[in-house]
Amino acid sequence: MIEFQSVSKKFGSNFALENINFLIDKGSFVLLIGSTGSGKTTIFRLIIRDLFPTEGNILLGEWNLTKLPKGKTQTLRRKIGYVFQDLKLLMDRTVVENVMLPLEFSGVSEKDANKKAEEILIEVGLSDKQNKFPLQLSGGERQRVAIARALVFDPEIIIADEPTGNLDLQTSLQILSLLDGINKKGTTIFMATHNEKIIEKTNKRIIVLEKGKITEDKKTTAKKGEKEEKNEH
Ligand SMILES: Nc1ncnc2c1ncn2[C@@H]1O[C@H](COP(=O)(O)OP(=O)(O)OP(=O)(O)O)[C@@H](O)[C@H]1O
Ligand SMILES: [Mg+2]
Predict the structure, then answer these.
(1) In which domain, by residue range, is 80 found?
(2) pTM of the predicted model over 0.70
(3) Which of 104, 185, 193, 221 is deepest in the core (most CB within 10 A)?
(4) What share of the chain in percent tops pLDDT 90?
(5) Alpha carbon distance 84, 200 (integer Å)
(6) Is the CB of 41 within 6 Å of ligand 1?
(7) Strands across the sheet with 14-24, in order?
(8) Is 40 close to ligand 1, i.e. is its CB under 6 Å away?
(9) Nearest CA to ligand 1 atom 5
């Protein structure tokens, strides 16, 4: 469960986010859309405590992130797999080394980190590329590496910031289907996208941001033909 309660975030005198309220249930898959600069990445950075809100509360399970002791931040971040908008892959490391890195930083032995990374690379369909370097991969494959790296701590939540950013439709749909598979195993997914085709095709809940405010939160819980619940703000 991720809950924003009247959250605002100012940079200097500018509001990047203003009075944001939403609740994301455990196990759900929610899309966050909005044009560039609308505040999507800022919402995600608040969730991993890379930023603090100017006002309001952020709850993650039983934790209130505004009150959580600083020492708990690392524990919090292990619950959340973060797929960065710019991926943040190390170009001089192989695929498997990139995926192993967060584990090794946290003190896991090289042997165990390698074993875990190999398992996850199978899960994301990249085991045959594990010894390649990021620049030897396609954009979609690189995105999968970033997703694999986000999975190493078996997170409760995956945050994916524009994971289909520069990909063609078919590759975007493959990434979405990979995330759907991860979601079906119980992981909550909160994903930002600009991809119109994905938005058109999806029946997932969509939170729309405009200039730091939520303008629409469309929760389609119904299957085709059933009633749709729509909350305009
Ligand atoms: N560290 C910062 N200092 C000052 N302003 C910032 C900072 N980070 C973000 N902003 C501003 O906050 C607003 C929201 O930025 P954010 O990165 O959250 O947008 P976004 O929706 O993720 O955009 P994009 O689709 O381009 O990734 C923008 O106006 C941006 O310029
Ligand atoms: Mg962004």
Answers:
(1) 2-232
(2) yes
(3) 193
(4) 83
(5) 24
(6) yes
(7) 14-24, 2-11, 55-60, 63-64
(8) yes
(9) 11
Instruction: Report the pLDDT value the prediction gives residue 174, as an integer from 0 to 100.
Output: 92
CA-closest residue to ligand 1 atom 1: 11
Q: How far apart are CA 30 and CA 219, in angstroms?
A: 9
**Nearest ligand (C-alpha, residue 33):** 1
What distance in Å separates the CA atoms of residue 55 and residue 176, rounded to the nearest whole number? 33
User: What tokens were used for 81?
Assistant: 């797999």
**36 CB near ligand 1 (under 6 Å):** yes
Q: Ligand 2 center to residue 39 CA distance, Å?
A: 7
pLDDT in tens, 107-129: 999 999 999 999 999 999 999 99
Query: Per residue in 21-73, pLDDT tens?
Result: 999 999 999 999 999 999 999 999 999 999 999 999 999 998 999 999 999 99
Atom of ligand 1 nearest to the CA of 45: 18
Q: Domain with 176 in it: what CATH number?
A: 3.40.50.300
How many folded domains does the chain comprise?
1
Instruction: At 76, list the tokens.
Output: 């919090």
Checking if the pLDDT of 228 tops 50, the result is no
